[in-house]
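We modelled the chain as a single entity of 495 amino acids. Its sequence is:
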Amino acid sequence: MTDLEEWSTNANQALTISFIQAGQTSVQTLSTFHPRFTYPIFGEEERIFGYQGLKINLRFAAHDLLPNIQISYDKRFKTVGETKATDLLEKLKEWTPEISFQKATTFDSSIQNDSSAPKFQPPGELVQSYTTRGRQFEIWRGELTDIAVQRLIERIQILISLFIEGGTPLPLDDQDWSLARWTGFFVYEKLSNLPSPNISSYSLVGYSTSYRFIIYHALPPAEEPAENRAAIHDFELSSLKPVSPTYLPARARISQFLILPSHQGHSHGTHLFNAMTSTFLNSSSCVEITVEDPNEAFDDLRDYCDYSRLLANGTLSQISLNNNIPSNLTSKRIGVKVPTSQLLDKPLLEALRKKNKLAPRQFDRLVEMHLLSKLPLHTRQSGTARITQRGRSTNENDRAWYYWRLLVKQRIYKKNRDVLAQLDRIERIEKVEEQVGELAGDYERLLRAMEGRKSSNGESISDNNERKERGKRKVVLEDEEEDGTPEPKKLKDNK
């Protein structure tokens, strides 16, 4: 019997992704890379059965993302009973448009002889231009109700499942009112010195999508002044025309976010995230900016961009920790509770959070990181050794370190109250202490990375969606969605 192992191929190695454009005499390749994942298409083991010498080439026109799939192999397994080779066309047709399967020669000819390519312009509106390493780049924004935007996303979004763990394509056959909630942002390089007259000056670098999550305000309390209730609820709906969801108060939620591997590490992710944030901040109907299930690398990018923005606009300079609480209120005696409400100006924090349109959890983390950065390094590295005197210490930095840890413990406990309530008192204390230590260590890592980025002229600390290998973060406690919606009870990390 034939050894079946010799007919099994690593799908990640078999699949090659390329971006191409017209050349002087034939099409030329601008970049080539392999996917990080193929399990959404070929199963958890990421293996393809039934071929030897298998090659799957997924190519895109660099400007309009016209796709083409080429499949070649040396041998194909002959069916024996119910054992047969994987039907590659059947697998791939679920993920790419029909036009992907035209003959390679036809595809090459259409790219090489496309007289419309020089006239190509990304759909939507130009929102930002920037220069990196002497090369020109542009960021364009368009709504999914625009057929041209839909076409680009339909062609390219297979990459979301190949590079973002758990990433799924958007359903583009939705109703217009639903598509109107979605926006696409595209990063293009503006090329120069083109070798052929049939070449577009645009080449894709990456893209992102976001959608509007409509907010329904709760009714104000009855004791609210009448003018306040009217301010929230006194508006008119025209009976003559429908209300567009683009005018309703909503959270902007960043969904898919991808910088192509050939462009990662050059700050394009930072430029794209900041351009999106600027768009949301300038929108009168956007009340909050959130992210849909970010991975660790995107968390780092987001933290860097948000923290840098709050530093630049003066938000963080307004926030300080009050470490002069009366010492008798920090006693270890039973029944004595530290008045944490006096440590920070909560009304000011809430006003600053809303002004910057940040989700509560994200804003809390940025404030904690800022307050930590104000403490001397030797204090931060001391662990609990310098806080035995609690708020009674004569050293103001030691008091600040004690109060900082207290605030973080309070946030962790509130977020994970139900899980922690199931533990006995000693284990609960140990678990929270452990979590505070891990969180402080993660903040230190981010602060060091930000300093390193400043000294390296702004090169990105995390420009992509790859899950970086680093010290493993222990997953210990429950958390919730950024908008306050509880998740099913489960163990979740401290971000």
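As a brief sanity check on the tokenised model: The two ends are 52 Å apart (CA to CA). The CA atoms of residues 135 and 189 lie 8 Å apart.
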